[in-house]
Amino acid sequence: MQAWATLSVKLSTAMTRNGAELHAFMGAASTALSSPLVSGLKPRLHKPEEFAAEAAPTNVKDIREHQHCPSPSQSDSIRSLRMRAFFLLLLLLASVMTLAGCATKGNVMQASAIDKLMHRYDGKVPGASVLVVKDGVAIVRRSYGLANVEDAIAATPATNYRLASVTKQFTAAAILLLVEDGRVALDDRVRKWLPSLPHATDAITLRHLLTHTSGVIDYEDVMSQTTTIQLRDADVLRLLQSHDRTYFAAGSGYRYSNSGYALLALVVERVSHRGFPAFLRENIFLPLAMHDTLAYVQGGPAIADRAYGYSEIEKSWKRTDQSPTSAVLGDGGIYSSIDDLAKWDAALQDGRLLSDASRRLAFAPSTPTDDPQVAYGFGWRITGDTLWHSGETIGFRNVIVRYPRQRLTVAILSNRNEPEPYRTAQAIARMFLDNE
């Protein structure tokens, strides 16, 4: 039974096609093994009280009867039953292996197609990692190229890339956790928590910041363009304090805002009395066993299996890993791997981290955007059946695309400035959606 169960697990986890049929055969095999036909072949085990109740045997005949040994005719029947069970299991095994062969062929074809789509990342160039999760199982974990070009360190599924704006879904989750605890409300005015903001921001709520409907000034627009010193989230607040204006009245429009998510990170710190990296680690990353994911602060914990960012300049790859805005955490400072993102995706399927109500809020189309095909939730873009977000910063291009109804997720993380990976992720998703 244990060997059969092990075979079942190996074959099941290898499947990307014909999964339902394979599981059906595994169920049939399990039923066959536990049926009277097979279980009846097991020797009868006496209960202790049966031994106590029976008289001790006095001769060979009594011993044979006492041990319930079969007669010759009974032995023939048992041999016949064993043969029937043996051929039944052979038939089931042959059927399973046929389906597994079809699945393996499907896996090879899909892997080859993914490799073809990702060929630009392969070789001695800045690379990428691809994740496909189907029905809660990571069925594709592939990496290409190099995480560190200078030292020729290959990218792997454990390589940690800077997520850039894919970070925003984690910042939103941090706010929602505080809402669930009753420590903040989505309609709290941001100045309740950050009173040094100018009066022009009086009407702005946390909900407005989450949905990019606050009108708050983008810090990239007002920071010095010649600075070489990296900004932190607190520096964003100081920049905005000196500009008593907004782009529009809160709630009256949409403008994608990195400033808004930097302010949300500061709200998390003010409310929780914990630094933003520590809050994420203690309340999201560790509970989900995302052990190598972190909001990176120079001088803080090192990034394990780190990917460095690169840009193609004059047909050559140059390291462009950091910029003056790279240390702002709330809008884009998290590093993670596809292996850890698989754990994050699993947490988005159920209530292990966020309640059903919180996830509904995060995934709901709260506002239209400047693209008529796209709405925005809390750290998520919504297009048709998909929830997704891209992330772009100097030296990194990433995307995560979720199909909740089909229980499919595709993520691509890359340590290079091009190409953008969204369309590639969609093309990979179609390979699995077309098989349904």
Q: TL;DR?
A:
The longest helix is centred in the first third of the chain and has 46 residues, at 72-117.
Topology:
Layout lengths: L1 H12 L5 H16 L1 H4 L8 H6 L6 H7 L5 H46 L10 E7 L2 E8 L1 E3 L4 E2 L6 E2 L5 H13 L9 H4 L12 H5 L8 H4 L10 H9 L16 H15 L3 H10 L8 E2 L14 E4 L2 E4 L14 E3 L1 H10 L8 H8 L3 E2 L6 E2 L4 E3 L2 E8 L2 E8 L4 E7 L7 H12 L3
Antiparallel strand pairs: 1-2, 1-15, 3-4, 5-9, 6-9, 7-8, 10-11, 11-12, 12-13, 13-14, 14-15
Tell me, briefly, the overall form: globular
Classify the beta-strand content into a percent band: 5-15%
The first-to-last residue Cα distance is 32 Å
Average pLDDT figure: 84
Number of strands: 15
Fraction of helical residues: 40-55%
Helix count, DSSP H or I runs of 4 or more residues: 16
Name the strands of the widest sheet in spatial order: 2-1-15-14-13-12-11-10
Class by SSE composition: alpha+beta
> What does the radius of gyration come to?
29 Å
Which runs of at least 5 residues are low in confidence (pLDDT < 50)? 1-69
- Main sheet record: 8 strands, antiparallel
